[in-house]
């Protein structure tokens, strides 16, 4: 039986970097935690649960765009290439493409290598003909594609509007890095569009409180990296819409005075003080094209839904 190859196991190598990164974010006067720490094993499962919520429109809208434009998309992407999945998670979205574009090889990249290992092994059993590899990589710092990965028709797959979790200069940096690695291939990307506040608020503050659990769980993820003593009961999930910056902003707000300690330091939070945990940018069709153009992509094919909630783009 063919087994997926795991090329790198980044998280353990970078424990000290993560410690320093989290500590310095917490010690800022406006405390923040990078959203990548949302995706520990439990956080990854909670995110999967979010994608099943009826209020969380991005996943279903994107899926419907793919289904409704299947033939055109297959024609644009071509067949038998190398599919490189950024933030692969449970690899479900890539699996959706397997039957259509029949990639010769599949490289899954994710921050949470534990979650990836399991998902990729199951997928390899199901598709023994595709050569599969996984990398645990923090590509928010730098995207490194090993030389061993084929340069034949590389298609980077970045669905779900994950690009929206970066502030614009970082998003453009990542897009430029992707462009540099496409080797004449392209980027197949899903990008969320700006829409009415009530739709956004329902999606990011759902009545089942799964998004609240996902956001609060970042404190447990931080405890495991930092050795800190955050208690999730001391914080509340807060969602704000920043119209000027065209983004949803997630925070954790202290519901009482809190003192958090970790080896070598402490941080106190006043009641009502917030920790920023995530930005989720929403774009217009114009602003997303400009962003992709600035990163080097000039040939864009764009598919969207009737409500113009979401856009799927093949960029070269
Ligand atoms: C992964 N990312 C695109 C999600 C989003 O919509 O920004 C993460 C998320 N945060 C809260 N709900 C979902």
TrEMBL record:
Parts of the chain that traverse the membrane: none
Any one of the GO BP annotations: methylation
This protein's record includes keyword DNA-binding: no
UniProt-recorded Gene Ontology molecular function terms: methyltransferase activity
Limits of the Histidine-specific methyltransferase SAM-dependent domain: 20-315
The entry's keywords: Methyltransferase, Transferase
InterPro entries (UniProt xref): EgtD, EgtD_Methyltrsf_superfamily, MeTrfase_dom, MeTrfase_EgtD-like, SAM-dependent_MTases_sf
NCBIfam families for this protein: egtD_ergothio
Protein name: Dimethylhistidine N-methyltransferase
UniProt organism field: Polynucleobacter meluiroseus
């Amino acid at each position: 039986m063919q087994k997926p190859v795991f090329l790198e196991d980044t998280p353990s190598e970078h424990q000290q970097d993560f410690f320093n990164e989290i500590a310095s974010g917490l010690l800022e006067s406006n405390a923040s935690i990078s959203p990548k720490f949302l995706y520990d094993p439990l956080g990854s499962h909670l995110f999967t649960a979010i994608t099943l919520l009826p209020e969380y429109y991005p996943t279903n809208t994107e899926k419907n765009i793919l289904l409704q434009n299947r033939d055109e998309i297959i024609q644009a992407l071509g067949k038998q290439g190398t599919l490189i999945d950024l933030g692969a998670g449970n690899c479900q979205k890539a699996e959706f493409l397997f039957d259509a574009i029949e990639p010769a090889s599949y490289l899954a990249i994710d921050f949470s290598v534990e979650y990836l290992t399991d998902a990729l092994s199951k997928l390899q059993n199901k598709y023994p003909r595709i050569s599969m590899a996984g990398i645990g990589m923090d590509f928010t710092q730098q995207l490194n594609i090993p030389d061993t990965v084929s340069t034949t028709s590389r298609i980077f797959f970045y669905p779900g509007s994950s690009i929206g979790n970066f502030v614009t200069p970082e998003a453009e940096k990542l897009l430029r890095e992707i462009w540099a690695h496409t080797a004449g291939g392209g980027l197949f990307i899903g990008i969320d569009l700006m829409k009415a506040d009530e739709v956004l608020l329902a999606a990011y503050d759902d009545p089942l409180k799964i998004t609240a659990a996902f956001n609060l769980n970042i404190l447990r993820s931080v405890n495991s990296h930092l050795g800190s003593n955050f208690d999730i009961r001391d914080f509340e999930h807060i969602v704000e819409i920043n119209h000027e910056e065209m983004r949803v902003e997630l925070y954790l707000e202290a519901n009482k005075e809190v003192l958090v300690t970790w080896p070598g330091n402490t941080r106190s939070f006043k009641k009502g003080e917030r920790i920023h945990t995530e930005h989720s940018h929403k774009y217009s069709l114009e602003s997303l094209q400009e962003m992709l153009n600035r990163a080097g992509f000039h040939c864009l094919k764009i598919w969207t839904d009737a409500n113009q909630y979401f856009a799927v783009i093949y960029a070269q």
